[in-house]
Amino acid sequence: MAQKFDPDQALLLDNQLCFALYSTSLAMTKLYKPMLDELGLTYPQYLAMLALWERDGLMVSELGEKLFLDSGTLTPLLKRLEAAGYIARIRDVQDERRVHITLTAAGRRLKAKAQKIPGCILTAAQCSVPELIGLTQQIRGLRERLAG
């Protein structure tokens, strides 16, 4: 049986999926901040490093797609990571429009320092690993459906 749609209930702030996701994102970013401060990274820089630790040598365009960031946002982020000594940007010899991002030795070493972060997040979330994986899959599925 279909649930009756109540327009007044639908407009309550606490009933908004977008607000639940937004406020959870704020709480998550606040949780990450002190750990990332220790690494000298912002949250978007951390996401870029995660992608590069997963697959070194990504092209800028591939990284942008993976992180859902446009080049106007990604370029300054990469410049700061390069200035910090964590990455190098290298133009493709066959096509100079293509730029590969490679980790430096310092960027690879930073991974070891970051390895404690997922455990801290797991502890703070007070979830089991399967529960957290399930939530992540649900949210990723929602994102894909919304993106069409």
From TrEMBL:
Question: GO molecular function of the protein, one example?
Answer: DNA binding
Q: Sorted alphabetically, which keywords does the UniProt record give?
A: Cytoplasm, DNA-binding, Transcription, Transcription regulation
Q: Which SUPFAM superfamilies match?
A: Winged helix' DNA-binding domain
Checking PROSITE patterns in the record gives: HTH_MARR_2
Q: Which domain of life is it from?
A: Bacteria
* Pfam families from the UniProt entry: Staph_reg_Sar_Rot
User: Signal peptide location in the record?
Assistant: none
What GO biological process terms are annotated to this protein in UniProt? response to stress
Residue ranges of every copy of the HTH marR-type domain listed in the record? 14-148
* UniProt-annotated location(s): Cytoplasm
Kindly give the Gene3D superfamilies that the UniProt entry links to this protein.
Answer: Winged helix-like DNA-binding domain superfamily/Winged helix DNA-binding domain (1.10.10.10)
Which GO terms of the cellular component aspect does the record hold? cytoplasm
Q: Which SMART domains match?
A: HTH_MARR
Query: What name goes with this protein?
Result: MarR family transcriptional regulator
Q: Which organism is it from?
A: Caenimonas aquaedulcis
